[in-house]
Automatic annotation (TrEMBL):
Lineage per the UniProt record: Eukaryota, Metazoa, Cnidaria, Anthozoa, Hexacorallia
Every BTB domain range: 48-152
Organism: Actinia tenebrosa
Cited InterPro entries: BTB-POZ/Galectin-3-binding, BTB/POZ_dom, SKP1/BTB/POZ_sf
Pfam families the UniProt entry points to: BTB
Identification of the protein by name: Serine-enriched protein-like
Length: 373
């Protein structure tokens, strides 16, 4: 026969009548107070037992190994070598006394003799060369305190840090935030920041979103000064999109402006700078008068390209047009990666060589650890 479940009060009454002790336990949580205490702890350099030397400027960021190991499996493997339990000589886990484990922190300092104090432990130093100090500091704040301010100025680096160090809750929050903070003003900056971390999966997933946003707002973005700072392969990825919301004349003027900036930085001629981008522009869609008076006068487009565009305008059946192909500006002496990539990010992947140098006191950390996961 089916019977209705008993509520807590009924079960307590029945257990009391049967001579059993009533359940008087209650679980209490104060997560907010814990977070406040952890934030206070993070402001005390005296408790740091690991220092990270971050970025090109080699600024120091401190941390607590136990907290970092508990919050990130990558930090756990980095700081403790993947050992989850300390074992005795017999191989069985070493268990501490329950009373000592629960109340050891209540011992007064006056009860410990000076000569019995353990020597001070050396602080571990870990260089972090691939992250900027602002990005890494946000990651450290979240791991120690459970919260951090997401800033669009370094959001790509925070996303990369959360991905590389396997901080899943922060990674989820940053992915949602970055989709909302992409604007016309910062999309080119995001492209440049993404170049540093393009080997990470989350950054590879971000690049198509940036390309799609750029294609939609191309008529605004192509004229920005920040557009001229983009790498050559990124400009080509943008210009070769069929859904680019810009006229061919706007594309040509943007390429020329970018070429001037690129030639000044790399000390090359304007013609050499824009040559890989010429086939991304459909010149026959530019009016004839502009082709002859404006485009040809810039002296950056070969004459045969202009003649072919004019011939197509006169008789489309007489000319066979070539489609633009994606390029990779990898140096000639650098071997190609055997792994195929998606077309949206094919031209901008530059994977660093894998290297790891582990010493007793100094550990050199590279982004290559992510590829091992």
């Amino acid at each position: 026969m089916y019977s209705e479940p008993l509520d807590c009060r009924t079960r307590q009454t029945m257990s009391t009548g049967l001579g059993c002790k009533p359940d008087t336990s209650h679980q209490f949580k104060d997560i907010e107070r814990l977070a406040q205490d952890m934030r206070l702890l993070a402001t005390m350099p005296e408790v740091y037992d690991v220092h990270f030397i971050v970025g090109k400027d080699k600024e120091c960021v401190g941390g607590v190994k136990a907290i970092l190991a508990a919050r990130s499996r990558v930090f756990f493997n980095m700081l403790f070598g993947g050992q989850s339990l300390r074992t005795t000589e017999s191989g069985t886990p070493k268990k501490s006394n329950k009373k000592e484990r629960n109340f050891a922190f209540l011992k007064r300092e006056s009860q410990v003799k000076t000569e019995q104090k353990a020597p001070a432990q050396k602080c571990l130093t870990i260089p972090i060369e691939d992250f900027e100090v602002d990005e890494f500091a946000h990651l450290m704040e979240f791991l120690h305190c459970g919260r951090c301010v997401l800033d669009s100025r370094c959001i790509v680096g925070i996303l990369a840090g959360a991905d590389f160090f396997a901080v899943e809750d922060l990674h989820t929050a940053v992915v949602k935030f970055v989709d909302k903070c992409i604007t016309v003003r910062n999309v080119c900056t995001f492209f440049c920041d993404a170049e540093k971390y393009i080997q990470l999966k989350s950054i590879k997933a971000l690049v198509p979103k940036l390309l799609e946003f750029t294609a939609t707002h191309a008529h605004e973005i192509l004229g920005l000064a920040s557009f001229r700072n983009l790498p050559q392969h990124v400009v080509r990825l943008i210009m070769s999109r069929k859904d680019l919301n810009a006229t061919e004349w706007e594309k040509f003027t943007a390429v020329v402006s970018w070429g001037h900036a690129y030639s000044n930085i790399h000390n090359v001629s304007l013609q050499s700078a824009v040559e890989p981008l010429i086939d991304c522009i459909t010149f026959y869609k530019i009016p004839t008068m502009q082709l002859m008076q404006e485009v040809r006068k810039r002296n950056v487009v070969p004459d045969h390209v202009i003649m072919k565009a004019l011939a197509y305008q006169a008789d489309p059946m007489s000319v066979k047009l070539n489609k633009a192909k994606p390029i990779n500006d990898r140096p000639a002496n650098q071997p190609k990666s055997p792994r195929k990539t998606e077309s949206s990010s094919q031209a901008c992947i530059d994977i660093k060589s894998i290297s790891e140098n582990h010493q007793e006191e100094v550990v050199d950390v590279k982004l290559d650890h992510l590829t091992k996961g």
